[in-house]
Amino acid sequence: MIHLEITVSDGRSQYITCKLQNCSDGNKSKPFPGFIISNSLVVQDEYVFIQVSVSGQAVHYVSYKRNAFYPMKLPKYTLPKDLQIISTDENQVLAAIQDSHQNDSYNLYMSDYRGLFFTLMLEDVVSTGGPEDNVMIDLYEVAGIKGVFLSNKVVENQVKTYITYNKGRDWRLLQAPTTDLQGNKVYCEQPYCSLHLHLHVSENPYASGNIVSKDTAPGVIIASGVVGPELSSVNVSIFITSDAGNTWREVFQEEFSVFFLNQGGSLVAIRHTPLPIRHIWLSFDEGRNWDKYSFTSSPLYVDGVLGEPGEDILIMTIFGHFSHRSEWQLLKIDFWPIFERRCTSEDYITWQLHNE
């Protein structure tokens, strides 16, 4: 089925569907009888969302499994001026709604299986952009384990990072590492001090972004952030967890881009800097120990990194320039020779989430 939003007149649109094999005027159907607000059609998994203007106010409608449309039922005192669909996984809708009094934050809501009735999940989540722009919500869904989310929330004018393991029913602050990179004890007591992470995912496919996790490496999350009372862009370090956010370790005290190799069996780190570099760091134990390698004889201004297709990646290509006036350079690194043996049962460890 093809889903279309057709502009009719005066900024009004209609929602039209037709079969892919024969999409002609005579075979089009109109699932919603009236006009809809332009650019409001969202088709995602089992759900279809539209907005309709009623007395100058946008009313949000949802269709579950392509059945009839019903107005979405939000809590009584919710006055939405913008609504963003975040996720429709596991037959639930996760939506971010900006209330009339909010400017730089959204509230998160979770629905029943029909996407009809919504309950509040988390208030005052940080956002960038506006209703007319591509809005970015500071919410990150951890890959590999269902129901785990990280979010940055405004608390008394401070931005703090929270984690949930049950899809938003309960949230808690992140426990800071017990020691820093040099092994010194870290004195950090909640709620006055905790670990805070930058949650923006890179729009550049050749960069790792501020936070990364993989379906093939459940429990491993790598992110940039700070330890203290609130999130900051000063003195940023790289942190890693192997148990889905229960405990964290500091692995670098400056910004790095970190990439997964071999389904997460090894990690490659490249210093994030505008200066030319010649080294990469490699870890086989989820960031507990790192070895430094030279990948080029001449320092390279790195513009990005490419991995071979698939999850079992053992080849990476680093591209950039030797100088601002030079041609593009592509350096291919094949990590296969360093994997000298197959894994045995002794190489595996068992871990589980805490009771809460």
TrEMBL record:
Residues 1-356 form the VPS10 domain. InterPro entries: Sortilin_N, VPS10, VPS10-sortilin. Keywords: Glycoprotein, Receptor, Repeat. It holds the Pfam family Sortilin-Vps10. The keyword Mitochondrion does not apply. PANTHER family: SORTILIN RELATED, VPS10 DOMAIN-CONTAINING RECEPTOR SORCS1. This is VPS10 domain-containing receptor SorCS1. It comes from Ilyodon furcidens (goldbreast splitfin). The gene is SORCS1_3.
